[in-house]
Amino acid sequence: MDQDLTDMLRISKAVGGDERLVQGGGGNTSVKTQAGDLMYVKASGTSLADMSEGRGYRQVDVEKCLRVVEDKDLLELRPADREAEVLRRLCESCVDRLDGRPSVETGLHAMLGRYVVHTHPSVVNGLLCAAKGREKLAELFADFAPPYLYVEYVNPGYSLATRLYTELANHRRRYGGPPEVMFLENHGLFVTADKADRALSLTKEVFGAIEGAVRKAREKAALPPFSPLSAGQQEAMAAQVAAAMRPFYSAVLGRPALIRFDNEKAVTEFLRIPRARDLSKAPPMIPDQVVYCGGRPIWVEPHERETSVEREVISALKEVEAGADTPFCILLKGLGLFSAAPSAKLLDAASSVMQAVLETLSVAFHFGGPRGLSSEAIESLRDCEADRFRRGLAAG
Ligand SMILES: [Zn+2]
After folding, report:
1. Per-residue model confidence as pLDDT tens for the chain (396 residues)
2. Cα 268 to ligand 1 centroid, rounded to whole Å
3. Which of 53, 143, 209, 280 is the most buried (most CB within 10 A)?
């Protein structure tokens, strides 16, 4: 195994094993050869933690990937067709014989430095999805040298790559060199460096500084503690909720639905916020929330006199449309989070992405309140996703 691949596996394992940094199959990494002509990049659909020799990555021709980003003719295509065409060309740029398709962010990786670490840290996203988050970043990282780059929201894939292409050129003109840290609004963090360790330590540095600021804001706010039900009550209620969800989601998915209950810290920290109900109704925060959780969670508040929480959940489910935007997560006040999916892998993604979103929302709450994705962005994400699904079915 060459040194570049050893580094690639090492940085991928380092961030992939930390759910605070990436969830499900999210995030990606890349390593270029010393000459910069070839690049290892994460394959889409696999998780960073599962990468191993011969698995979970592709090696691509950097120049060919850059040519895809530079091709303005692609702008003429409908977004879903464009993403499919970009993916086809990225597959053509592979120089190995491995399985899997290169990440949709390969074009973006191609323009950056030798080592690239892209993560979706929920705490960092708390600022990237908050009304006053940009100000806070400016305060925390004012003395970064070279200065960081802040990129306003644009959908992942080709749109993001072309936007970055322009922004990086502007940044170079303005500061005489490329940035090492890039904050992508409502999305995540990109770090690039000429040493693998530097890419990892910068990721940790940004995460740590924001985590510190969040801790201070939380101490100042002194929210009431989460008051959970007794273990026995919890178990009985969770069983009722799952019983109500199973037939609904099995019908929506067209096959038996798997249901999962979580009451980890990210969930209870969110539920203890007095305005949790309002926050849960904010538009989706990040693209993965639209893709894996079907958008915002359904909020259910059990009434004191109501004996059956099952009936409450059934009536809440009746209100949501069974279609492209069916939410796959339910938040139950005082209890926790329920997720539904057709497979164990998707269930894990729905639950871990929603937990990250709840953390993002509870951070954003302290910095001017959450600022979700626009309806155009959500629609286009759903369009591309539906398209990918259809193509996946067609391909068997
Ligand atoms: Zn991303």
Report:
1. 899 999 999 999 999 999 999 998 889 999 999 999 999 999 988 899 999 999 999 999 999 999 999 998 998 998 888 888 999 999 999 999 999 999 989 999 999 999 999 999 999 999 999 999 999 999 999 999 899 999 999 998 899 999 999 999 999 999 999 999 999 999 999 999 999 999 999 999 999 999 999 999 999 988 888 877 788 888 888 999 999 999 999 998 899 999 999 999 999 999 999 899 999 999 999 999 998 999 999 999 877 655 678 888 888 888 886 666 789 999 998 899 999 999 998 999 999 999 999 999 999 999 999 999 999 999 888 887 766 665 555 554
2. 26
3. 280
pTM: 0.93
Query: Ligand 1 mean position to 72 CA, how many Å?
Result: 23
Q: How far apart are CA 300 and CA 318, in angstroms?
A: 12
Q: Ligand 1 centre and the CA of 236: distance in Å? A: 38
Where are the strands (E) in the chain, listed by range? 28-32, 38-42, 57-61, 115-119, 149-151, 181-184, 188-193, 258-262, 298-300, 329-332, 336-341
| Residues with a beta carbon under 5 angstroms from ion ligand 1 | 188
- Distance between Cα 315 and ligand 1 center (Å): 35
Query: 195 C-alpha to center of ligand 1: Å?
Result: 21
What is the set of domains in the chain, with CATH numbers? 3-219 (3.40.225.10), 231-394 (3.40.225)
Q: Taking each helix axis from N to C terminus, what angle separates 79-92 and 158-175, rounded to the nearest 10 degrees?
A: 80
Distance 274 CA to ligand 1 centre (A): 31
